[in-house]
Amino acid sequence: xxxxxxxxxxxxxxxxPGPGGWGVVILDEQEQLLLELSGFEAATTNNRMEVKxxxxxxxxxxxxxxxxxxxxxxxxxYLVQTYTKGWMDSWLRTNWKKGxxxxxxxxxxxxxxxxxxxxxxxxxxxxxxxxxNNRCDQLAVNAxxxxxxxxxxxxxxxxxxxxxxxxxxxxxxVKPPFDPIVLNNPxxxxxxxxxxxxGMEQLEQNxxxxxxxxxxxxxxxMNRTLAPEVVRSITNWIGIATxxxxxxxxxxxxxxxxxxxxxxxxxxxxxxxxxxxxxxxxLMCSFIVHIGLLKAREIGLEQQK
Length: 305
Prior knowledge:
By secondary structure, the protein is of the alpha/beta class.
């Protein structure tokens, strides 16, 4: 008789790419806790950590039992839908889309493990009321904290800072030491990466638009609306574009959120189930108002009176 195990998995990353962690909780057939696992990688991505968590959990169960049945719970559409939506079958049939599929090494490792188990994939809502999913997230984040102390974890800081009301005026916005029309990624020649900043003459209108949208939709509300991996990716993108760019620092109000949403959708069409563009814009605006200005103050991008 096959043994049944419940595996909860989650991955986290500070930046994308950046230092990453993964967490796993394994339960027995009676859903009693058996063990917890976690790990760290110095340079990785959110998606790789999601897949790595599944690999680690299934590998551990195979050490405990031969040919087990597994129910694997994850908040990652990228992981779950690869198998429930037939993406993997399509990738294998087209030779990994002629080599264009990302993370082939990890998918191949996971596929080899899946041949040894009987598995059912279950998508859960991240950062909600699922005890074991939340525990996996905690394990993943703690792995980063322990191995890369001082590295900011955007997902964690959002939940704390998003509750802090922020009043914003144009006087608080810094005039950057560069032409705001320049690329948000000056190392890239892609036209789509040239559209995410606005000029000074558009600044007042842009601030008004962001404040209007953020006043109607809180970060917490948007976090409940969108898939957790989409929230992580978008907030990390804004964080990197504004605060962690290798060559320039950009005040968050210089982001043209509509264009950035379009850029994200085009760039991630194969990575996530497609969210609604309007929902992405709501999330970006609430992030910028409730988190972006606080972070801008912290790193000195706010204009000194």
